[in-house]
Amino acid sequence: MTRGSQRERDRERAAARAGGKGKNGDDGLTPEQRRERDGKALQEKAAKKAAQAAAAGSGGGAGSKGAAKK
Predict the structure, then answer these.
(1) Could you tell me the sign of the dihedral formed by the alpha carbons of 10, 15, 21, 24, in that order?
(2) Alpha-carbon span 31 to 8, nearest angstrom
(3) What is the pTM of this model?
């Protein structure tokens, strides 16, 4: 009978651990809203990367690593 209480305790601990972790698949957005949000994030990321590449490219000289790499 002592295993019963341990099993319940373990279930409670597992539920507590799982509660705060992981990806939440249901964020309250429709698939279209999710696509818009993700597309916007990707555009911002691409713009930031392009700005960094332009800043690195304007440094000039042979010291620019990966300038030809894509």
Answers:
(1) positive
(2) 38
(3) 0.44
